[in-house]
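The step that takes the researchers longest sounds almost clerical: writing a folded protein down as plain text. The outcome of that step, for a single protein, is printed below.
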Amino acid sequence: MRDRDKRGSGSYRGSRKRTRGYSSGSADNPFTNYAESRKKDQSSFRKVLTIMTIMFFTAIFAILLFANHQEFLDKKLGDNSFISNLLNKLSAENNSKDKPEFSLPFGLKRQNILLLGVDSNGADSDLWVGTRTDTMILVNIDPRTKTVNAISIPRDSKVYLPNGMGIQKINAAHAIGGIDMTIKTVEDTLGVKVDKYIMFHDDAVRAIVKALGGVDIYVEKNMHYNDNAGNLHINFTKGKHHLTEKDAVEYLRFRHDALGDIGRTQRQQWFLRGLLADLQKPETIVKIPEIISIASKYVKTNMSPYEMSQYAAFAKGFNMDNVEIAMLPGAPNKHGYTSYWILDPEKTQEVVDRLIYRQQAEGRKEAYTASIMSSPDNLDEARALKKALEAAGIEVKCSGTLKSVHSQFIAHSKYVTIDYYADLKKQVPEVKSRQFVYDPATFMCADTDFTIVVAADNK
C-alpha cells in the first residue's frame, strides 16, 4: 500500500510513496502469488462491522440511556466507580465544567479507531496475552460530517510483520507482539495512522447473550457439524431461532461451507442484527448495567473516559445511513497447508483512499448502470425495482438470483457515493434504505456502477 504522512491523523494530504517490500520485483512479495484468474466470491455480503462494533455501541447506548440516573447507577455499580463517574459526567443535572458537549475534541481531524476481537488463549490468567485477532475493523470517524466508514480486514491477510518477524497472517500480529505490533502492522500495510484501539475478548459474546436471555435471529441455511474431539456439535435448521449463549457461540463458529471464513463473517453480521433488535426491546433496559459490567471486564482500550463520553454524544445523533463499509479486496490462495487472503494492492488502495482518506470523485456521471440480485422469494420486488430504475434513466444491465438474506446497496464505481445513494432513494423510493457497501472488485453479474441486493431479510 502507500506510506502516508504520519505527523497526525489529520494530515490526509501530502506526498505518498510505496511501502517497502511491496514492489513487483521483490522476491518475497506476498502479492506475487496472486492468481490472475482469481475466484470471485458469489456472496453479496463479505463486508461487515461484526460483533465488535455492536459491543462498542452497546456501551455507548448504555451511557446515553443511564446518564440521568445517578442514584440507580450508584446502587448497581457502586459509589464513585469508574463507570458511574463516567455516566455522571453526561448527566443533565451536572453543571460542572466536566460536563461534555460534543465539541469536536479532536479539532477537525478525522480519527482512525482499530476494533479488534481476540480469541481465547486457553488460559485463566491474562485474557489479552497470546491471543489472535479473529476480527479486525478499521473505523474512520469524521466528527465534522458525522459520518463513519469501516474497513473489515480479513484475518488471513498475508502481510509483513515488523521487527523482522517475516510474512504471516495478519491475525498473528497480536499473538506475537501484542497491541503495538498489531497497530504497526495495520499502519504499515495500509499506509494509515491508527489513533485509538478498542479490543474485545470473545467470551464477551457468551456473557452478553446470557445477560439478554438469548438472541432471536434468522438462520439462513441448515447447519450440521460434529467435532467430538473439539466438543463442538452444531445442529441448526433454516428459519427463526432463539439462540442461547451456547447456541450463539456455535452459530458464530460454524465455517464448514463453501464460503469458509467469509461465510462466518456473514453470520456475524446477521447475529449483530438480531442483537441490535433485542437491545431495542423495553425489557432490555434493566439489563444494561450488567452489560456494562461485562464490557468493563472484556474490553481493553487506550481511550480515556472523556473521549468515550465524546463518542457517546456523537453516537446520540448518529444516522446509520451515513455508514459506508468495505472489505479489503483480494482472493484466497493456499500455500501448502496454509490458506491466505492475498490482498489486491491496487483495489485495496482504492478502498483506503475512499474510506480512510475520504477521497471522492468530482461531479457525477451522465448515466449510471445497475445490476439487481434477488433471492428466489423476492423476484416480484426485484422486477418492480428494475422497472423503477429504468424509469429514472438508469440502465439495468443484468438481473440474477442470489441465496442471500442480507439486503445491500453495493457501489462499484467511485462516482457512486453516499450522497448519490441518498439522492437515488429520493428519486426511486423502491431502492429503500440498505446497507451501503463499497466493493470495486467484485461484480455480481455484470460490470456496472452499482448492484442492489434484494434479499429475504427476516423471512
Notes: The domain at 50-204+274-355 is CATH 3.30.420.590 (Nucleotidyltransferase; domain 5). The CA atoms of residues 25 and 169 lie 21 Å apart.
